[in-house]
Amino acid sequence: xxxxxxxxxxxxxxxxxxxxxxxxxxxxxxxxxxxxxxxxxxxxxxxxxxxxxxxxxxxxxxxxxxxxxxxxxxxxxxxxxxxxxxxxxxxxxxxxxxxxxxxxxxxxxxxxxxxxxxxxxxxxxxxxxxxxxxxxxxxxxxxxxxxxxxxxxxxxxxxxxxxxxxxxxxxxxxxxxxxxxxxxxxxxxxxxxxxxxxxxxxxxxxxxxxxxxxxxxxxxxxxxxxxxxxxxxxxxxxxxxxxxxxxxxxxxx
Length: 253
What we know:
Helix content is 88%, strand content 0%. By secondary structure, the protein is an all-alpha fold.
């Protein structure tokens, strides 16, 4: 009986120990599971934070690239507009320079033509002087007419010289404005220079028209005087005159 009771006690103790061991094992497994779950949560949180940070950085980079692209496009548009304005101003300046060169060439030709007319006037003056020497013996009226013709020729020559000086001054001012216009980049400055250049061109055109009118007047008057002083053969049907026109010593006169 005592042995059976002792055996029962031993079994009970073993069961108690086994139960205790099972509880410890279960507690250890639960603790390990909780540690793994906590570690997994920590890893998940860290990965989620990294993903959020990466997404934020990508968004900021995309925004920065978009702003940079928009700024580059805006700068390109501004540069293209400036280049177009400068190119237009350069083309207009080149056109004005070619026009000024053509005007200068025409003015040079007119100046050469005026010099030729001046030589003709000098020959005409010599003829008139010779005629005056002959006419003086015939009366004072002819001398007065010759003096008037010479005064008109001198006045026309002085007026032509003054207009020529004004034209040269206007050409120089045009060239200066064209040079400034070719170097100007500000649209407002370009517009102001272009306005000044147009006004100077209009003034130059008026001066050249006035100079042309002045040159035509004496030329017509001089032609009439020259016709009257040219050497002619004697009216009696004698020997033809071989003198140089305008020679004051010609005996045909």
